[in-house]
Amino acid sequence: MKTLMLGAAMAALSTGVSAQTIGFSQIGSESGWRAAETTVTRQEAEARGIDLRFSDAQQRQENQIAAIRSFVAQGVDAILLAPVVATGWDSVLEEAKEAEIPVVLLDRQVDSSEDLYLTAVGSDLVHEGAVAGQWLVDNKPEGACRVVELQGTTGSSPAIDRANGFRQAIEGTPDIEIVRSQTGDFTRSGGKEVMESFLQAEGGGDNICALYAHNDDMALGAIQAIKEAGIDPGDDILIVSIDAVPDIFKAMAEGDANATVELTPNMAGPAFDALAAYMADGTEPEKFIQTESALYTQDDDPMAQYEARKDLGY
Ligand code: AHR
C-alpha cells in the first residue's frame, strides 16, 4: 500500500501531471519571522507545483490538531507542522502515521517519539541562545551586568531551548545575572508591555545592563518601551535577540539594537526536498535537518542586511 502511494506521488512529482497535495499547519502570525516563513513556504510550494493547503492555527494547539485531522481526512500526500508547543502531539501524529502520511516538523520541536514524524527542519535552538549569551559575555560593560529576559511562548521549544542556551553561555561569568524573566509570547506588543513592567519594577533603566529577547519582534517592542522611558536602547541597555528580521537591522543601523542571531524563514525548501526524495524512492532523510545560526552585529552593515531581507514577506 505504502509503495503504491509513494509511486503515485513520485509520478506526480516527476511528470507534473497532477500536483502533489501538502497540508501546512502554521502557528499563526505572531512575528515578522513567522509571516516570512509563511510567505517563503507558499513561494516554495508554488515553484514546485505543490498544491499547498494552508491552515492558520492562531496560536492554538487544538486548532493545529484539528487541521492535521482534516488533512488526514482529505488524504493529503504529506503534512508540514510548525508546532506551537512541544508536548501533546502523540495521538494526532499517530493518526497521521496510521494513514501513512509523512509529517515534517518546521522550525519547532516536539517531545514525541521520533518515529512519529519523518524529519524536522530547524535550527539548533539551544545554540541560538548560546550565541546570544556569548555575545553578551564578550560585549558587556565592566562589572556587574543585570539582564532582563523576554521569553517566547510558554511551552514552545524555542522558549525552552533559547533560555537554556543563553544560561549555558553566561554560566562562567558571575558578573552576568538574569534578574527578570517573563514571556512576551513572541509578539511586539507583548515585548513592549513586559519591558514596561520590567522598567517599572526596576525603578527605571539604570540597573538594567542588557535585554535578551527570544525574538526580534519582542526586542523591537521593548526598544519602543525603553525609548518612551527616556533611556537609550543599544547604549544604556544592550539589546540582543534572535531571528534577523529586517526591522532589527534598521534598529541596529540607528544604534538601538546590538546583535541578532539569524533564523532562516526558509524551512520549507529543505522540507520539500526531503519529501521529494522520500516519495521518489523511500529515501529516509536525517531526523534533523539543521539550518544555520549566524550572528549579526552593528559591524555587519545593518542597512545592507535590511535590504537583503526586506522583500521576503517579513
Ligand atoms: O519558532 C521560531 C520562532 O517563532 C521565531 O523565532 C519567532 O519569531 C516565532 O514566533
Automatic annotation (TrEMBL):
Signal sequence annotation: 1-19
Transmembrane segments: none
Gene3D superfamilies, sorted: 3.40.50.2300
Subcellular location: Cell envelope
Coiled coil, from the record: none
Domain Periplasmic binding protein: 22-282
Keywords noted in UniProt: Signal
GO MF annotation list: carbohydrate binding
Gene Ontology CC: one annotated term: cell envelope
InterPro entries: Peripla_BP_I, SBP_2_dom, YtfQ_transport
Protein family: Belongs to the bacterial solute-binding protein 2 family.
Protein name from the UniProt record: Sugar ABC transporter substrate-binding protein
Organism: Roseivivax isoporae LMG 25204
